[in-house]
């Protein structure tokens, strides 16, 4: 009905409703440095292209005459978090690069819609600021595990105190990927004055001479191993989700090590060039561990139909990456609001047109297209 409202009102939105076309618009407003950090991917960009190609290879097979409700309810509960639809905002750092209000604009837009927001360790607003802006709305915390145990424990404690209910541990970024667009400009936002608020406001950083150097010493942490996970369990009272899982073996290990969920993700192709498309990894992982773990998904979702494909291939919810930052760049809080509403709207319409009134039991809704398509 909201959709009809747009037609009836005859007033075109300020930002396009074609979310796949948002990147082009965002390119017009981002500085070259910001664009170089946000838009491109690792190496030749093969993984990011594979992410998109995988979405094109799958096709939705809609069902008819299924008595779809006029008022539909896509709400669900994931790891104790209620959400209006199986959609969340992916953790993304340095959002001030996209807009001066950064994470505060994003969390406000997400909170107004009840869409869960995942706060990055590399954010430019602190846990406490984000919590204040988000009010009672659902939020999770994404940890980049620092080499300093003291800082790690401080982050966990601050996140807990600020009402972040679940912990996402990102595993695919023990080091930054080979990112030519940043390397060619010698630009890394963390080093170039975009403040890393969680670190800079941490008591462990008080009085430190050169906080950027201090950060640079504790961020790369490729030495983590599975046996480190019990430490997190001891110090985090709540669900723990591993982000960056694309191998079935790792998904099984996640279950064996007592994790609550995994996010099937290749970081939007920003880490390993030539990596498997996240969507191609999803069905095998969901089949193998879907009964033991909450399987979530990101990397390459650009619109509501993509989200439906990921849900139909076994994800319980889908995280939205770059499109949120494009909305942020184009319109701050209103831009993120627009992007999330478009996603929620298109997700709902695609499911309804496919014969569904809710977001449950979506398995088997997609098939792999023949090689002549896409
Ligand atoms: C990210 N991503 C990310 N992931 C994470 O766990 N912690 C982080 O701080 C960041 N930071 C970040 C910054 C920027 C600019 C981007 C584009 C991405 C990865 C993010 O959570 C998600 O996995 C990808 O964005 C999904 O891919 P798409 O949808 O953007 O292609």
Automatic annotation (TrEMBL):
<feature type="binding site">
    <location>
        <position position="142"/>
    </location>
    <ligand>
        <name>FMN</name>
    </ligand>
</feature>
<feature type="binding site">
    <location>
        <position position="265"/>
    </location>
    <ligand>
        <name>FMN</name>
    </ligand>
</feature>
<keyword id="KW-0288">FMN</keyword>
<feature type="binding site">
    <location>
        <position position="179"/>
    </location>
    <ligand>
        <name>glyoxylate</name>
    </ligand>
</feature>
<keyword id="KW-0413">Isomerase</keyword>
<dbReference type="InterPro" id="IPR012133">
    <property type="entry name" value="Alpha-hydoxy_acid_DH_FMN"/>
</dbReference>
<feature type="binding site">
    <location>
        <position position="270"/>
    </location>
    <ligand>
        <name>glyoxylate</name>
    </ligand>
</feature>
<comment type="similarity">
    <text>Belongs to the FMN-dependent alpha-hydroxy acid dehydrogenase family.</text>
</comment>
<feature type="binding site">
    <location>
        <position position="144"/>
    </location>
    <ligand>
        <name>glyoxylate</name>
    </ligand>
</feature>
<keyword id="KW-0285">Flavoprotein</keyword>
<dbReference type="GO" id="GO:0010181">
    <property type="term" value="F:FMN binding"/>
</dbReference>
<feature type="binding site">
    <location>
        <begin position="298"/>
        <end position="302"/>
    </location>
    <ligand>
        <name>FMN</name>
    </ligand>
</feature>
<feature type="domain" description="FMN hydroxy acid dehydrogenase">
    <location>
        <begin position="11"/>
        <end position="372"/>
    </location>
</feature>
<feature type="binding site">
    <location>
        <begin position="321"/>
        <end position="322"/>
    </location>
    <ligand>
        <name>FMN</name>
    </ligand>
</feature>
<dbReference type="InterPro" id="IPR037396">
    <property type="entry name" value="FMN_HAD"/>
</dbReference>
<feature type="binding site">
    <location>
        <position position="170"/>
    </location>
    <ligand>
        <name>FMN</name>
    </ligand>
</feature>
<feature type="binding site">
    <location>
        <position position="120"/>
    </location>
    <ligand>
        <name>FMN</name>
    </ligand>
</feature>
<feature type="binding site">
    <location>
        <position position="267"/>
    </location>
    <ligand>
        <name>glyoxylate</name>
    </ligand>
</feature>
<dbReference type="GO" id="GO:0016614">
    <property type="term" value="F:oxidoreductase activity, acting on CH-OH group of donors"/>
</dbReference>
<dbReference type="InterPro" id="IPR000262">
    <property type="entry name" value="FMN-dep_DH"/>
</dbReference>
<dbReference type="InterPro" id="IPR013785">
    <property type="entry name" value="Aldolase_TIM"/>
</dbReference>
<feature type="binding site">
    <location>
        <position position="37"/>
    </location>
    <ligand>
        <name>glyoxylate</name>
    </ligand>
</feature>
<feature type="active site" description="Proton acceptor">
    <location>
        <position position="267"/>
    </location>
</feature>
<keyword id="KW-0560">Oxidoreductase</keyword>
<dbReference type="InterPro" id="IPR008259">
    <property type="entry name" value="FMN_hydac_DH_AS"/>
</dbReference>
<dbReference type="GO" id="GO:0016853">
    <property type="term" value="F:isomerase activity"/>
</dbReference>
<protein>
    <submittedName>
        <fullName>Isopentenyl diphosphate isomerase/L-lactate dehydrogenase-like FMN-dependent dehydrogenase</fullName>
    </submittedName>
</protein>
<feature type="binding site">
    <location>
        <begin position="91"/>
        <end position="93"/>
    </location>
    <ligand>
        <name>FMN</name>
    </ligand>
</feature>
<feature type="binding site">
    <location>
        <position position="243"/>
    </location>
    <ligand>
        <name>FMN</name>
    </ligand>
</feature>
<dbReference type="Pfam" id="PF01070">
    <property type="entry name" value="FMN_dh"/>
</dbReference>
């Amino acid at each position: 009905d909201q959709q009809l409202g747009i037609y009836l009102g005859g007033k075109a939105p300020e930002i396009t409703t074609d979310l796949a076309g948002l990147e082009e618009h965002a390119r017009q407003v981002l500085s070259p440095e910001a664009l170089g950090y946000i838009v491109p991917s690792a190496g030749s960009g093969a993984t990011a292209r594979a992410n998109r190609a995988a979405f094109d290879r799958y096709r939705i097979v809609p069902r008819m005459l299924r008595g779809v409700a006029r008022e539909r309810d896509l709400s669900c509960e994931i790891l104790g978090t209620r959400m209006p639809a199986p959609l969340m905002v992916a953790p993304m750092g340095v959002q001030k690069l996209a807009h001066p209000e950064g994470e505060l604009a994003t969390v406000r837009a997400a909170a107004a819609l009840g869409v869960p927001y995942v706060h990055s360790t590399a954010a430019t607003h602190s846990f406490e600021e984000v919590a204040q802006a988000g009010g009672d709305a659902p939020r999770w915390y994404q940890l980049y595990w620092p080499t300093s145990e003291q800082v790690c424990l401080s982050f966990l404690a601050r996140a807990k105190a600020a009402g972040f209910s679940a912990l996402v541990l990102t595993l695919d970024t023990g080091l930054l990927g080979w990112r030519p667009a940043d390397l060619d400009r010698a630009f890394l936002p963390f080093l170039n004055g975009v403040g890393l608020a969680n670190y800079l406001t941490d008591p462990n950083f008080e009085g430190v001479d050169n906080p950027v150097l201090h950060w640079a010493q504790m961020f790369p942490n490729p030495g983590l191993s599975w046996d480190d996970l019990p430490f997190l369990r001891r110090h985090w009272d709540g669900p723990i989700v591993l982000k960056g899982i694309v191998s079935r073996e790792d998904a099984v290990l996640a279950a064996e090590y007592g994790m609550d969920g995994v996010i099937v993700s290749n970081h939007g192709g920003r880490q390993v060039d030539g990596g498997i498309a996240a969507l191609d990894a999803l069905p095998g992982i969901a089949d193998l561990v879907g009964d033991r773990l909450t399987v979530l998904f990101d990397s390459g979702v650009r619109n509501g139909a993509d989200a439906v494909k990921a849900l139909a291939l076994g994800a319980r919810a889908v995280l939205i990456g770059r499109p949120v930052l494009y909305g942020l760049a184009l319109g701050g809080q209103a831009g993120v609001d627009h992007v999330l509403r478009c996603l929620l709207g298109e997700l709902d319409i695609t499911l309804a047109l496919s014969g569904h009134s809710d977001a449950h039991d979506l398995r088997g809704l997609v098939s792999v297209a023949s090689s002549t398509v896409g």
